[in-house]
Amino acid sequence: MRKVLVATNNRGKVRELAEIFENLKDSLLLPADLGLTLQVAETGQTYAENARLKAVAFARASGLACIGDDSGLEVDALAGAPGLHSARYAGPGTTDADRRAKLIRELRDIHAPRPARFRCVLAVARPDGEVRVFEGACVGEIILEERGVNGFGYDPIFYLPEYQRTMAELPQEVKNRISHRARAAQAALPYLTALLKLGDAESSRRP
User: Fold this and answer.
1) Cα–Cα distance between 79 and 58 in angstroms, integer?
2) pLDDT tens digits, residue range 24-71?
3) Are β-strands 65-75 and 115-125 bridged in parallel, bridged antiparallel, or unpaired?
4) 167 closest CA partner among 144, 151, 186, 143
5) Which of 70, 76, 98, 109 is an active site residue?
6) Residues 51, 13: Cα–Cα separation, whole Å
7) Is 70 known to be catalytic?
8) How does the average pLDDT of the chain come out, rounded?
9) Residue 68: half-sphere exposure toward Cβ, Cα within 13 Å
């Protein structure tokens, strides 16, 4: 079976992608599986640029098709911040809890609702240089107290009015249908499936 490399060691992302790509999960590899320790600077000005940078670098290093992603939380009251800087919002060496605490402080004087959206871009790069990009978004609000123990990142303060729960309170099977990463992954799934089938067909034709 052909393999696809996922350019992340973030356990939360890996777990979500494996569950979303359930029929392909046996085809997914992580950098650690190949002994890759590549560090890719996220110097892009958009999520798509950063996702491409990661996917292309790992595809070249591994010789495999590769999935790279970039995502962020955009809060209307903060003019779209933290956005591209979501993972570094509280500075280097900080935790998810630190980043949530900073965001709560920033929004303390803003009355509810506090509209926000998660955005995700998945880039699928082939070793020959071809790249396809897929996007997903999830709209909600920011609340000022943490609720729920599922998920990671900003999930405990990202509230979904239609479910009356935060992302961290949702059952995983629901999150895997509606999250920004799930929607980007669902958009990418037909292309990935075709890519793996093409690879299998090419392998079968080799003497």
Assistant:
1) 33
2) 778 888 888 889 888 888 889 999 999 999 999 999 999 999 999 999
3) antiparallel
4) 151
5) 70
6) 14
7) yes
8) 89
9) 26
Q: Residue 33 belongs to a domain with what CATH number?
A: 3.90.950.10
Task: Quote the CA–CA distance of 198 and 203 in Å, as a whole number.
Answer: 9
Please tell me the distance from the alpha carbon of residue 56 to that of residue 141, in angstroms, as a whole number: 34
**Beta-sheet strand order (sheet of 65-75):** 28-29, 4-6, 65-75, 115-125, 131-142, 158-160, 165-166
Q: Which helix (H) or strand (E) holds 120?
A: strand 115-125
> Which amino acid type is present at position 93?
G
The residue segments making up the domain with residue 178 are 4-205
* Cα 55 to Cα 132, 141, 194, distances in angstroms: 10, 30, 18
- Within 8 A by CB and 6+ apart from 81, the residues are 74, 75, 89
Cα–chain-centroid distance for residue 180? 8
What total of structural domains would you count in the chain? 1
Residues in CB range of 207: below 8 A, 6 or more apart: none
> Looking at the whole model, is its pTM more than 0.85?
yes
Burial of 156 (0-12, 13-18, 19+ CB in 10 A): buried
